[in-house]
Design goal:
Elements (H helix, E strand, L loop, with lengths): L3 E8 L3 H12 L4 E4 L6 H6 L1 H19 L13 H12 L2 H11 L3 E3 L4 E4 L2 E4 L2 E10 L3 E3 L13 H5 L7 E5 L3 H12 L3 E5 L11 H13 L3 E3 L3 E7 L4 E7 L2 E7 L1 E4 L3 E3 L13 E2 L2 E2 L13 E3 L11 H17 L12 E3 L4 E6 L2 H7 L3 E7 L4 H5 L6 E7 L5 E8 L2 H13 L4 H5 L12 H4 L1
Parallel strand pairs: 1-2, 1-6, 2-3, 6-18, 8-9, 8-14, 9-10
Antiparallel strand pairs: 4-5, 5-6, 7-15, 11-12, 12-13, 16-17, 19-20, 20-23, 21-22, 22-23
Protein name: Glutathione reductase (NADPH)
GO molecular function, one term: nucleotide binding
Family: Belongs to the class-I pyridine nucleotide-disulfide oxidoreductase family.
Length: 449
């Protein structure tokens, strides 16, 4: 059988892989792309985009509850079935649209995950292909948990496609995805229990603001069980029984659904990377300054599967541009790791950028810590929310902002101003000297300094 040859073979059709393929094809390179799932990747099909659609009506409900009796007479009712139908208007067209666009550029499509045969050769769909450059952009997948009954667990994909919300849901794990889904489910009427082997949630975020978010979550009816080690999940007639050990005691709880939200890992297990001489770690595909693999110089990586920085869609696009540039023009462009803000889309949002308190204390001799609840400020009072707090960190010697941590209704937006301020080494006085719209959430950052 003849072996097909390409200039570039891309594995993964999400933000990163798709962008590399398109840019290379526009430069008249012979390009192929493969994906073992619907084309378009996680973010557009089953991740950040559909998640935000489902979040929308819960924001309306939250605001209505806060303002009931203050202009709002009766509360809206959430209809999960209608919400899912609305969500599909954002996702159903994605795979075909992506495939059509790629094919118009002359890119050959494969609908299976390839495996390396050697440094430049792959097998895919029963065919053997070779490529001068291979780009791994396979993203992340749910972490597999190792206990009896793990096959009974649902994943984030299942939650986002539920036709009906169960009366009681158990989430195993308390990271970004777990907390966001828990808030959605609780507001839509489900009883929610969260199990984690750690002593708290969201360990990447500020401890003080996380504690406040936990309290708010409990007020929603969300139950947290910390320091719990799940040992077994069993299918009953109507429910699932989850057994866990806490303080040397074996405890069991029941629910209609159990969801694995213990985190995500690089999707590399099926690629036969050893045969391709591709260096990798538990964090993902290894890389150098050019997003090139240190062992196999024919291989590049970008997006969530790369061990570079945080697994976020905007960063994936930036990495993809670097990879495409280096494939097209030779290794001329190095990756400059940017400052990356993070957000948990709970209600309220929890957002962070720059150094945390512990990191700031290690790096600087003296720091200023502005930590306060802002629930009595105008913007919080006008929508009657108590969930508004901040912690801003500054280098005392220079007055530069080095870290910002926000909890509030618009924290996901406001954190971007702090990201710009830290990137540009702005001081508190620099920010205070600017004019923002008033009264706005963004204008509040002056008072946080």
């Amino acid at each position: 059988m003849d072996k097909k040859e390409f200039d570039v073979f891309v594995i993964g059709s999400g933000v990163a892989g798709r962008l590399v393929a398109e840019k290379c094809a526009k430069q008249q390179l012979k390009v192929a792309i493969a994906d073992n799932r619907a084309f378009g990747g996680t973010c557009a099909n089953r991740g950040c985009d559909p998640k935000k659609v489902i979040l929308g009506p819960t924001e309306v409900l939250e605001l209505s509850k806060n303002l009931k009796g203050k202009g709002i007479v009766s509360l809206p009712t959430l209809n999960w079935k209608a919400l899912q139908k609305f969500k599909r208007t954002f996702t159903e067209f994605i795979p075909k649209a992506v495939e059509d666009n790629l094919e118009e550029l002359g890119i050959e499509l494969y609908h299976q995950s390839p495996k390396f045969i050697d440094e430049t050769t792959l097998t895919v769909e029963g065919k053997t292909v070779s490529a001068k450059k291979i780009v791994i952009a396979t993203g992340n997948i749910p972490r597999k948990l190792d206990f009896k009954g793990n096959s009974l667990l649902k994943t984030s994909d299942d939650f986002l496609n539920l036709k009906k919300l169960p009366k009681h849901i158990i989430f195993i794990g308390t990271g970004y995805i777990a907390m966001e889904f828990a808030h959605m489910a609780a507001r839509c009427g489900s009883k929610v229990t969260m199990l984690d082997h750690n002593a708290t949630v969201l360990n990447q975020f500020d401890d003080d603001l996380v504690s406040e978010l936990i309290d708010i979550s409990k007020q929603l009816g969300i139950k947290f069980v910390f320091n719990a080690e799940v040992v077994k999940v069993k299918k009953l007639k109507k429910n699932f029984k989850v057994q866990y050990i806490k303080a040397d005691k074996k405890i069991a709880i029941k629910a209609q659904m159990v969801i694995n939200t213990s985190g995500r890992v690089p999707a590399i297990a099926t690629l036969n990377l050893e045969k391709g001489n591709v260096a990798y770690t538990n964090a993902g595909i290894s890389y150098n300054h050019f997003m090139q693999n240190p062992l196999n110089k024919n291989v590049y990586s970008c997006g969530d599967v790369s061990a570079h920085s945080k697994p976020l869609a905007p960063l994936s696009g930036m990495e993809a541009n670097i990879v495409a540039e280096n494939i097209i023009n030779g290794n001329t462009k190095k990756i400059d790791t940017p400052l990356v803000p993070s957000v948990v889309f709970t209600l309220p949002n929890l957002a962070s950028v720059g150094l945390n308190e512990e990191e700031a204390k290690k790096r600087y001799k003296n720091i200023i810590i502005n930590y306060k609840s802002a629930s009595d400020w105008y913007n919080a009072k006008r929508i009657n929310t108590k969930a508004y707090a901040y912690k801003i960190l500054m280098n005392k010697r220079t007055n530069e902002i080095v870290g910002a941590h926000l909890l509030g209704p618009q924290a996901a937006e406001t954190i971007n101003l702090f990201a710009m301020a830290i990137s540009k080494k702005m001081t508190a006085n620099d920010i205070k000297g600017l004019v923002f719209t008033y009264p706005s959430w963004c204008n509040d950052i002056k008072d946080m300094l």
